[in-house]
Amino acid sequence: MRPLSLSMSAFGPFAGTQVTDFSALGSNPLFLINGPTGAGKTSLLDAICFALYGKTTGDEREGSQMRCDLADDALLTEVSFSFALGTSSYRIRRVPEQARLKKSGDGYTVHKPEAQLYKIDSEGTETLLVASKVSEATAEIEQLTGLDADQFRQVMVLPQGKFRELLMADSKDREKIFSQLFQTQIYRRIEDKLKFQAAEIRTQVREQRSRRDGILQSAELTSAEELLIQLATVESELLSAQGAKEQATEAQQAVAKAVDAAQHLLLEFEQLAKLEQEAQSLAAQQTHITAKSQQLALATQAQRLKPLWELFLTRETEFRAAADKLLQCRDSLAKARVQKQEADTRAQHLPALEQELLQHEQQKQSLNALVSELAEFTKLKQGLVSAQGELDQAKAQGMAGKAELEKLQLQRGEHETLLPQLQQQSDTRLHLQQALSQQQQLLARYQQWQQVSAKVEQTQAQLTQAGAEGQTLAAQHRQAQTGYKALQLAWHQGQAAILARELRAAEPCPVCGSELHPHPATWHEALPTEEALQAAEQAQSHAQEALAKARADYKGLQKQLETLQQQADELAQSLGEVQHLGLAELSHEAERLQQAVHAAEQASRSLQQLQNQIKVLQQQETGLSESLERDRDRYQQLHSRVDTLLGQLAQKEKTVPLEFRTREALEVAIAENRQGLEALKQQIAQTRAGQQQASQHFVATEAATGAAEQARDAADEQQTQAQQTLVARLTEAGFTDQQALHSAMLDDAGMQALAGEIDAYQQQSALNGAQMAQLTARLDERVMPDVAQLELRLEQSRQHLAQMEQAWQALHTRSSLLKQTQTQLHIADGKVKILEDQYGVIGTLADVANGNTGNKISLQRFVLSVLLDDVLLEASHRLQLMSKGRYRLLRKEDRAKGNKASGLELEVEDAYTSKVRPVATLSGGESFMAALSMALGLSEVVQAYAGGIKLDTLFIDEGFGSLDQDSLDLAIRTLMDLQSSGRMIGVISHVSEMKEQIATRIDIHKTSLGSEISLVLP
């Protein structure tokens, strides 16, 4: 990742908006971030880290705590950071949670955090990737960079006071960082995949074994041997049950046939009884059937007279209709006579209506003539109103313009009065700025002198304490050495006594060979063991190492004290008499000069603004004077126009009546006239048409009444003739009157039903007789069977058969279950064998890959250890240069205690002592050099591996102050070498030598109104 630009608003010590263009520093720059304490050097790195991840580099402050107290309430705290990843460019904007003034009302409201991420194409066009969600923006940044916030702080930023974290990280933490940097997650996925597969196989084995036990339990078995025994027993019993079932089936079938024959014979006896009952019922119906036959004969006679009956009814209906029609016509004739008389009366008023119509026509002509006159009158009146309005407006505009001109002249005079004072105050700005710069430099040197003096006192105290600790360690070393020598002497003497106890007379001594032993060695105390001797030797060695380290630390503190004292003396000499003044007095003077500079700058800006305002006022006066002259000419023209319109309007009022001087009144009169004309015309036409229609209707109604009388007479004659013919035929057919005929009549359906009923009776009687004769002959000499006894025997045989089938079915089911269980057991045993063979391979691979064997090193950690060796090779090369060949970084290969992960811890080899020791034993300056070497080596190796994350930028926050001059020169030379290989290196430091050797700088100026940023280029 390579920074392109950074914009901060109201962030940290920056009250306004500060923009840093990193691309202006050049390609692969080595630059210094310079500024006094508290100016905001670290805040620059905080802003980058916050923009990317929403966290600061030290992770000690939340984003909501980064708002500048000096910022304007209207300015939003936000950070915008543009950066390049390979050939792609991006911009992220992040706003922390903060309190904002309400848009309406008093008080504050909480502005929620937000973030936007854009991708920038080659033409500078931005494409939105994340709209506002903070978590989505952070996740996208982690995806793009391959690092989270903690990893970013460890590999791309060495934060102030936290550079040791990169060195001191254990295997677990270093594994997280390196796996992201080198993209080795595939090995972790292999580990997880193997672990998952092994666990899955173990689960399947347990499931198969559990399933096998379940198969036996479901068959109520305990073992496969029991299964074989039960299967043989059940097969034998099943064969016997099959024979018993077949015998029971044959017996049940024989009884069933006997029951069927008995039931058939019983059915025939019951059928004969039913036929005898039916014969008795038919004999009882004979009288009813005879009456039905007589009714059918009368209905047949009536059917022949039906046409004459229907003709008589038709003639009777026609006569009644003709009589009703005659009554209606006579009623209509009376009404038509009345309507004709009324229409004749209305027609007598037609002459008066026609005279009124003529008057309305004359009024219409008069009103139409007034339309054009009213239009001219209205136009003149509107023109007068408009002209009077323009005249009043022109008068008011002239008065307002005159007042505005006087106001501008007064305002210009007031501004010109202020010019001399602002000019004098502005002239002092340059002198005050120079004095302020000198005072700020003096204050910075004074603060640095105070800090160095405090370090001198602190180092002196540390030196005194180190001397006391050295004396204590020397005494402890002497004591351990004396104890070890005494124990060693006792051990040797004890060995002689042990040897003497083994001597025998006349046998040679294994030491001197003499067979005489006049004075054998003796020992009356407890002999020391070899373990005690080794422990004493180790205690002496540890005491010696501690003493050597204490002496080296003491010499280092002495040298550091000399360097600090020299710096303090140089700073005191540069301060001169100023060192006797207090910090408060110097700060007060700097603040006073700052305020004076601010006042002078404000006066200069005010002077320029005032001069511009005077020029604008003069231009406005000229324009306003010209405008007033034009307004006076226009006022005279409008006044003449109003007089002319007043005369024309007076002439036109004579031709337009007062009541018609509005368009609405005239239109109402015209509309009323039009409605009156239409109403009169309609009334005259309706009166004439009504008279004609009433006369025509009366004539037509009178003719219809005569025709109705003739039709009534003809219908009466036809009705009488039809009645006479019907009465003559009734007598011939034997009917007494019309009522008797009507009662005998049946419709076709009724006659058919009656005839059908008689035929059905006759057929049923014949059939009943034939069936009775047939059954009587067939059942002759037969006896009614005892069906109940036979059915009881049948039920008993069925129950016996069911018992035999149930016994056979139970044995058959058990046999099938045992055979199925035998098959399932064979399949389950085969699956368990296959899974156990698979686990023998997969399980072993999973244990090895996940570090569960040997040195507890997983597959990914093994790969990373190889990569770490490459990193340490590069880092050691740089560390040896900076430490003058003393130190070299190594990977600890010993297994960690307990279950702790191992394989990625670091150690340091000390060429002075030829020993390897933990990196935690390095001093502050040594740790900084080691961490810097580690970061640079990591950057080199990651860049070298294809597909690795781009670590082409490194920020270092402080740490150089802990180096001596030679180490500092070597560190700077190392950074310059790294710059030439294509890296951007940013350094934050108070060390003056850094400023002298690094020409490209980002200077941060601390002011009372907030810090400001400027670029210094060579």
Automatic annotation (TrEMBL):
Annotated GO MF terms: ATP binding; endonuclease activity; exonuclease activity
Pfam family, one: SbcC_Walker_B
Biological processes per GO annotation: DNA recombination; DNA replication
Coiled-coil intervals: 241-292, 350-452, 533-627, 787-838
Annotated family: Belongs to the SMC family. SbcC subfamily.
PANTHER family documented for this protein: ABC TRANSPORTER ABCH.3 (PTHR32114)
Chain's role: SbcCD cleaves DNA hairpin structures. These structures can inhibit DNA replication and are intermediates in certain DNA recombination reactions. The complex acts as a 3'->5' double strand exonuclease that can open hairpins. It also has a 5' single-strand endonuclease activity.
Protein name per the record: Nuclease SbcCD subunit C
Organism whose genome encodes this protein: Shewanella salipaludis
